[in-house]
Amino acid sequence: MNLSWQIVRLNLKETFSISYGNYTFREALIVELSHKGCKGYGECTSIDYYQINLNDFTSHLELIQKQIESQKINHPIEFYQFLLTLNLHSFLRSALDCAYWDLFGKLENKSFAELNSIQINQLPESSITISVDKIENQIKKIQTSTWNKFKVKCNHYDANSVQSLLNLDYNIALDSNASFTKEDCLLIQDNSEFSKFSYLEQPMQTGFENYKILNATASANWMADEDCHSISDLVKLQSHYKSINIKLVKCGGLTPALELIIKARKLDFKIMIGCMTESTIGISAGANLAPLCDFADLDGANLIANDIAKGSIVENGLIKLSNKSGLGIQLV
């Protein structure tokens, strides 16, 4: 098995604004694992509010390259157990885990769904993100979009803006990126009108001291993002969040994400498969879990102007899974 990597710049179609800042591009680390003419790909992006430095990742890859290349081609679960011994950041571990699933599937000539006995009966429709802006501009983007589901970003709670969104006849979710206060959340969850939002994602800064005031049985469908990284978080979240957002880079890849979904179902959580702003490499990996989820937020590749890969796609919110082996990823 051979390991290689590259850092690419993904330019955004327009400035992307969230409560953490404004962005015109993202840098992404693309990992490639190859064997017997087959190539598997994984991706992780540089996210400043997660304190991700891709140069640190490439330095780490140089140190462990020989260890990875010496691994035999075993089942991906066995490869993931090996990855756990390398003390990798979850973002880098995810890129390697996804690349290996893609490679293994291509070597076996089987899709990820076939390898995991996933029935593709129904796929959730993906939302598209409306970044932070004046409310009139956000509404205009919603009304002129060809998508049906929207995730509206906000950087604080503004009652008039929120009411304007509630007055619209659209499928809308709110993502405050942790910019709401406890007082805001108590006001929201006691108001039955907020059940009109499909979910309200990561309302406050992370930590139990904040989310302990949230009530999972309230009208608001509170969804944990940064508060949910792994299986170990779920029991503590259960009384406070109805839903969780699973992002592969957050939990460490497809392998732990599958385990997280199984456990979350047993605890009666609603589940979303989410993404960062990433190319079709990362989106194709996440899309393979969509059949197991209630919500999808897989618009990342739709936000960039210079996609670098082909695979599963999202068109106007409709997820179209690749019919190719592995994760169905090809570089362009």
Content of β-strand: 15-25%
Mean pLDDT: 97
Lateral arrangement of strands in the main beta sheet: 4-5-6-7-8-9-10-11
Secondary structure category: alpha/beta
Instruction: Name the shape in a single word.
Output: globular
Give the H and E element order: EEEHHHHEHEHEHEHEHEHHEHEEEEE
- The number of helical segments is 12
Main beta-sheet annotation = 8 strands, parallel
- The beta-strand count equals 15
| Cα-to-Cα separation, first versus last residue | 22 Å
Unreliable parts? none
Please estimate the helix content: 25-40%
- Integer-rounded radius of gyration: 19 Å
Structural description of this entry:
This protein is 33% helix and 23% strand. It has 332 residues and is of the alpha/beta class. The strands form four sheets. Strands 4-5-6-7-8-9-10-11 form an eight-stranded parallel beta sheet. The relative contact order is 0.16.
The gist of it:
The chain has 332 residues and is an alpha/beta fold. The protein has helices at 54-69, 76-83, 90-108, 112-115, 135-144, 159-166, 182-189, 208-211, 231-237, 248-251, 254-266, 280-287; strands spanning 2-18, 21-35, 38-45, 128-130, 149-153, 171-175, 200-201, 222-224, 243-246, 270-273, 295-296, 309-310, 313-315, 318-320, 330-331.
List the helices and strands and how they pair.
Layout: E1 2-18, E2 21-35, E3 38-45, H1 54-69, H2 76-83, H3 90-108, H4 112-115, E4 128-130, H5 135-144, E5 149-153, H6 159-166, E6 171-175, H7 182-189, E7 200-201, H8 208-211, E8 222-224, H9 231-237, E9 243-246, H10 248-251, H11 254-266, E10 270-273, H12 280-287, E11 295-296, E12 309-310, E13 313-315, E14 318-320, E15 330-331
Parallel strand pairs: 4-5, 5-6, 6-7, 7-8, 8-9, 9-10, 10-11
Antiparallel strand pairs: 1-2, 2-3, 12-15, 13-14
Helix pairs in contact: 2-3
